[in-house]
Amino acid sequence: MSISAPRSWRQSNGNVPYIKLIVNLLYCIMVLLMFTNRLKGALQAVRLVGSTLATEGRLEVNYDGIWGTVCDDLFDDVDASVACYMLGFR
């Protein structure tokens, strides 16, 4: 990926003033941080609540920013294995 300054920032000799490059770099860093925060939230899609132990509790999923309880109807060992993996238990 290549980042370059807009043409309006360029001087007649093709050089770009350093302050404008710094502003462009800060903007790129801000966008990257916003993307990283969204990714971090997406990775935390499941959690256990309602227990003092880290290995038990009610399983909840995060959908569109809202936490909801997982129904245990038809929840089997395969589902439990996926949930444990997503919780970091390997």
Which descriptors would you attach to this protein?
90 residues; Mac-2 Binding Protein; 2 domains; three-stranded antiparallel beta sheet; 3 strands; 40% helix
Give the helices and strands, then pairings:
Blueprint: H1 18-43, E1 46-49, E2 58-63, E3 66-69, H2 77-86
How many domains, in number, for the residues?
2
Topology, number of strands: 3
Span between termini: 35 Å
Q: What is the helix tally?
A: 2
Please tell me about this protein's structure:
The chain is of the alpha+beta class and 90 residues long. The protein folds into 2 domains: 1-43, no CATH class; 45-90, Mac-2 Binding Protein, CATH 3.10.250. It is 40% helix and 16% strand. It has helices spanning 18-43, 77-86, and strands at 46-49, 58-63, 66-69. A hairpin with a 2-residue loop joins strand 2 (58-63) and strand 3. The radius of gyration is 23 Å and the shape is rod-shaped. The model has no long low-confidence stretch (mean pLDDT 75).
Concise synopsis of the structure shown:
This protein has 90 residues and is of the alpha+beta class. The chain has two helices and three strands, in the order αβββα.
